[in-house]
Amino acid sequence: MRLMQSIIVGEDRDTVRALRAIYVREFDSLEKHHDRYVQCNAPNCSQDDFDGEKDWIQAVIYDHQAILAKCDDYLAQTYPKSTSVVSRASSRHSSVSSRQARIHEAELKEKEAELMLQQVEDETRRREEEDAKIRRVGFIES
């Protein structure tokens, strides 16, 4: 995961904050997709299936919270020190272009993540269609 890698290698705060925002957005999307998956499959699920789904999402949420806690700790440790007005003014120009590059990189990563999410959704849809066909064939044979 890119967020944890950036923390491990000690990337700058702006990059970590951008990756954190993307991570949170992706997790929210995953939660919504999981909820929709469970709702759509409710008629075909046993109580054990529901318990398994509940256990899975709880484990994912726990991991998500642990990663965000590590990220928040890192951001707290790297809180920018106050700098003099002169040094801020002189570094402002170089930091603007650097920030723009990081923002651009984060946007590219976000688009990449959206593409991957779309691929997962497409694969899920394809599997659901195959499962429906298999259930129909099994129903016809019985």
How does this structure look, described?
This protein is mainly alpha-helical and 142 residues long. The chain has helices at 2-9, 13-41, 47-77, 85-141. It has one domain (2-141). Helices cover 88% and strands 0% of the residues.
Overall geometry comes to elongated
Query: Total strand count, please?
Result: 0
- Number of continuous helical runs: 4
Nearest-angstrom radius of gyration? 22 Å
Number of domains: 1
Which strand-content bin applies to the residues?
under 5%
CA distance, first residue to last residue: 46 Å
| Largest sheet features | none
- Can you give the helix content as a percent range? over 70%
Instruction: Label the structural class.
Output: mainly alpha
Order of helices and strands: HHHH
Q: Quote the average pLDDT.
A: 80
Residue stretches low in confidence (pLDDT < 50, at least 5 long) are none
Keywords: Coiled coil
Characteristics:
mainly alpha, single chain, 142 residues, 88% helix
Summarize the helices and strands and which ones pair or pack.
Layout: H1 2-9, H2 13-41, H3 47-77, H4 85-141
Summarize it.
This protein has 4 helices and no strands. The protein has 142 residues and is mostly helical. It starts with a helix and ends with a helix.
